[in-house]
Design goal:
Layout lengths: L2 H17 L40 H15 L10 H17 L1 E5 L4 E7 L3 H17 L6 E6 L4 E6 L3 H16 L6 H8 L3
Antiparallel strand pairs: 1-2, 2-4, 3-4
């Protein structure tokens, strides 16, 4: 295979990996047999054994939306008149704002955590949309008692438990571990896309 064709194959493979597709070329050695060493790929692309390629999407929100769209398309019961992928995307944007740009001020409590979650502008708006709903859903999870109170410049969250071992879990997780706990599975994200 000449150098030009070898470049085409490499470009196609790169595109397949980027888009999460698998390729029959992965089990072939033709491209590697000559000319490719000069590009430094021989040590990184192991064409001599076919392997499952990890399906990386290149962008988390895109990967999440892609998964949910696939599940909705595969479900013949999907009522497309109620589906809004824009609504799901807005929720993911809010989650991103809260997870990466919020600030947390711990307050003292012996029974678990009491926190003020705050941020500026769009971040505060996202906090006010996400945190109370998440707190409501998480109330009762693992015997936790969870409440959220919206203030002008923050949301005050209280996560407590009567169980000493659970209090240790709550304290170790902190706010961001709490935010990542319990929900955001495909079923919840599908519910958001469906407007539930």
């Amino acid at each position: 295979m000449d150098e030009k064709n070898c470049r085409r194959v490499l470009f196609g493979l790169g595109l397949c990996v980027l888009l999460g597709w698998s390729s029959p070329v992965l089990g072939q050695r033709d491209c590697c047999s000559r000319g490719i060493e000069s590009y430094g790929y021989r040590n990184h692309l192991h064409y001599d054994r076919a392997e499952v390629v990890q399906r990386l999407k290149g962008q988390e929100a895109l990967g999440t939306v892609q998964e949910i769209v696939g599940l909705l398309l595969a479900d013949p019961r999907t009522d497309w008149s109620s589906v809004s992928i824009d609504r799901l995307r807005d929720y993911l944007v809010d989650l991103d704002q809260v997870m990466l740009r919020s600030r947390v001020e711990p307050l003292s409590t012996d029974a678990g955590l009491e926190l003020r979650v705050t941020g500026d502008g769009a971040v505060l708006d996202a906090i006010k949309r996400v945190v109370p709903v998440h707190s409501d859903v998480m109330n009762g999870f693992r015997s936790w008692s969870v409440s959220a109170e919206v203030e002008d410049d923050a949301v005050r969250v209280e996560i407590t438990s009567d169980d000493r071992a659970e209090r240790a879990v709550i304290e170790a997780l902190g706010f961001y571990g709490f935010l990542a706990s319990g929900v955001h599975r495909p079923s919840e994200l599908i519910a958001i896309a469906r407007g539930r």
